[in-house]
């Protein structure tokens, strides 16, 4: 195994993968890396290895065991190590029960019903961006607010609090940006906010996910405990806006970085669905990847990994594996099939993937129709990554039309 590469691995360009990914997949697919905390972990970069570990229900993303690696130096309260994270069941029948209760709100059928409302939000945000005049920042003007409006509506939470949610989310996704005291204070505020929100929902239920979870009663009635509902709300607010908000900006930037891609979609909008999937596969800036704690020894890629190993699954590196995807380094807007791992695999695959896909498709449909002349206002090389968080994104996406 290659020794102590620093992880995350930096890249020279915001939309391009680090050169090390291809080297690791070819020569050292099971590599030792050093995390921002200084702890060691094992990095997986090959498709089959990543899929094997992600799909194995024995291994969880909760890094709460005493010998699990800490992701960041502040890690008592990060997304994967916090006491809060332990409140939601992470395996077995309890986890499946939680997914069934919450997953009812994220079915493809329910997402199809939400499409017109999403399109309306996108239209309104684009109107505002056009009014302000070019150049605009696609991330701030459209990519960030749209998923926040949608998830706030699903949770019955006021969207005007979105700047606070964004800050609280960032602290939960901290790797190197915030100090421990700041992370703890933000989480305390977030917890208090959600607690007050649930009290209000009990008094006046609405047509939203949290009201429905409260109405289902506690564990003895087949529902969730109050604290589980609260943490579910926090988790969905973070997951429901942070990743998709960033992905909207990255997807549009990838499609505009080589404008023949955008023109192809203008000519043939039937490619929107496959273009969204290919953008998800090609995303070289998806963030940290998914950590897994090995509660028992396992062999991965002909390497024996002992119990107690913390494994980092790089879905983004796996999604460029030439043994699975023909011309893996090229963006093929019509690629089919496209079994990418952007949403993980197995029992812990992303609960909100139908929501994310629908939002990405709607944004692309509306943008192509409303702003066919859209282009990047800077060269792709000038785009800058979000730094210091477990989620990847672009700081800004300057555009003109």
UniProtKB/TrEMBL annotation:
PROSITE patterns, A to Z: CYTOCHROME_P450
Transmembrane spans: none
Keyword annotations: Heme, Iron, Metal-binding, Monooxygenase, Oxidoreductase
Cytoplasm recorded as keyword: no
CDD domains assigned: Cyp158A-like (cd11031)
Source organism superkingdom: Bacteria
Heme keyword on record: yes
Protein name: Cytochrome P450
Name of one Pfam family that matches: p450
Family that this chain belongs to: Belongs to the cytochrome P450 family.
Originating organism: Nonomuraea corallina
SUPFAM superfamilies found in the cross-reference section: Cytochrome P450
Cofactor: heme
InterPro entries listed in its UniProt record: Cyt_P450, Cyt_P450_B, Cyt_P450_CS, Cyt_P450_sf
